[in-house]
Amino acid sequence: MGEIWGVLAAVASSALGGTSIGATRFLVGAIDPLAIGAFRFGIGVLLLLPLALLQRRNWPTRHDWLGVAGLGLLFFAAFPVLFNASLIFTTAARGALALSTLPLLTMLVGAVLGAEALTARKTAGVLITILGVSMALLSGLATAPPGAWRGDLLMIAAALCMALYSIWSKPYIRRSGPIPFTTLAMAAGAVVLIVASLLRGSFAPVADFGAPQWSGAIYLGAFGAALTFYLWAFALERTTPTRVAISVTVNPIAASLVGAALLGEPLSWNLVAGIVTVFAGIWIATTQPPLAHAVAPDMR
């Protein structure tokens, strides 16, 4: 039952992540990627900290501080910079589809690190999913902004950061719980982003913010950071990194709907075909054939 809750939390996290791509795409024209990340995770830490203190669970021990801080810099500093920068060059829907390579990267990195085996069925699912992402990204270049491929590559690099975080953070989350771990890791990334933003003068455009921009920034902090990444850590505590990463396929659907509703981005047939193919590939890669289920009881 705990694993089911973990998968559901991961799906909810990915759905929120998809709406966050649309909100980021909205803000990226008003403020630079560093400042967006600083707002997102700074607000997220402010909201998570009281919950962590009230919960009274064990905080990461001194032995874990360096590892938690390193994971925080990887996920809450490097990831958002790459994520936000990618949306300067590409659309919300394309960015979400590029991020959907996360399950593939998680399976491959997990296999390299010995976290889980990469079977022939997983390999077939990986190839089909790559085909689906390629269909959605490459066949719709006529409606993409110039140089969109740069944004796609930046988002894939962001997905690699997320894959490493998902694999390496699991033991830390088990020791201290999702809220204390996420709060401390997010704080490490937020401090770096805030300092970098101050040094670059990235907060200067904030003086011209209106209600829409402030609403977008607050939404990113409350839902796109605090809730999204708490749910992600909650899921990692209860199920495997690959099963958590698979949920990111919900992301393109949410991002596409937000992009169409708020940004006027088109919903094309090749995008729909790509999403369907991605789902098919992920299903193949993460399920066992019926024969395996049939013989499993006899093998016990």
Automatic annotation (TrEMBL):
Membrane topology of this protein: Multi-pass membrane protein
Gene3D superfamilies: 1.10.3730.20
Every EamA domain range: 5-136, 150-286
Domain of life: Bacteria
Main subcellular location: membrane
Cited SUPFAM superfamilies: Multidrug resistance efflux transporter EmrE
Family classification: Belongs to the EamA transporter family.
Protein name per its UniProtKB record: DMT family transporter
Organism: Bradyrhizobium brasilense
